[in-house]
Specification:
Layout (H helix, E strand, L loop, with lengths): L2 H15 L3 H16 L5 E2 H7 L4 H14 L2 E5 L4 E5 L26 H8 L2 H11 L1 H4 L5 E2 H13 L8 H21 L3 E4 L4 E4 L1 H13 L10
Antiparallel strand pairs: 1-3, 2-3, 4-6, 5-6
Helix pairs in contact: 2-4, 6-8, 6-10, 8-9
Length: 224
């Protein structure tokens, strides 16, 4: 890297640091106003879709707000979730009971963790599947292979017996490698690794209740 390039780079950074306060306010105020209307965290993709600014502008504004301590950004596996920080005590601002359902207090998960879990379309489908009457009440649990087949059938819209071996195996492998470890860590399921059987817990049922209350809130999140 040449000295001239280094000089130009320092100059660019200096200009960015000396941004007019009015410009910073113009970038950040729409985000703060939007977040104040919500009772739960907002996915980054939702902010970009809802506000009439380029994605790069929104991302820079979010970085500035996070640096100021005005918002908390939970960078999850499925999506980034943004929530206001209470200006008085520095805590994450959450809805009151009068404003609507609050994830924390309903289940033993932090709000941003719960919404990270629900941020994946495939995890949502799996939660609904395991909470269904024919699966939830079975005390023996279910094998990951069988759950992979049932999940494939649910997503594709076919009968379980019509699911191919490839489809069943692909879903089962993804569940085992990516999703079940997260569910198990937060007691959403009980996973016996010796037998590879999975059983739903009360936490899963409560998550599905929250998911049903949200409706199509997260439909824009791509399938994993």
């Amino acid at each position: 890297m040449t000295a001239e390039h280094n000089t130009n780079r320092r100059s660019d950074n200096s200009d960015e640091q000396l941004e007019d306060p009015a410009t910073t306010t113009a970038r950040t105020e729409p985000i703060l106003s939007y977040l104040q209307t919500r009772e739960r965290p907002a996915p980054r993709a939702e902010l970009i879709a809802a506000l009439s600014h380029p994605a790069a502008t929104i991302n820079r504004a979010l970085d500035a707000l996070e640096e100021r301590g005005a918002v908390a950004i939970d960078r999850g596996e499925a999506c980034d979730l943004v929530q206001l920080i209470d200006a008085d005590d520095g805590s994450i601002a959450t809805a009151s009971q009068e404003q609507g359902p609050v994830v924390a207090g309903t289940i033993n998960l932090r709000p941003l963790i719960a919404f990270d879990i629900l941020g994946s379309r495939r995890r949502r489908e799996f939660l609904r599947l395991l909470a269904s009457d024919e699966l939830f009440d079975d005390p023996r649990g279910h094998t990951i292979v069988n759950l992979g087949g049932a999940l494939a059938a649910r997503e594709i819209g076919i009968d379980v017996q019509d699911v191919s071996v490839k489809q069943r195996s692909a879903r089962a492998a993804e569940l085992k490698d990516r999703h079940l470890p997260l569910f198990d860590d937060y007691d959403v399921v009980e996973w016996d690794r010796d037998t590879d059987r999975v059983r739903a817990t009360d936490t899963l049922e409560q998550l599905v209740e929250i998911l049903n209350a949200l409706g199509e809130e997260f439909d824009f999140v791509p399938r994993e």
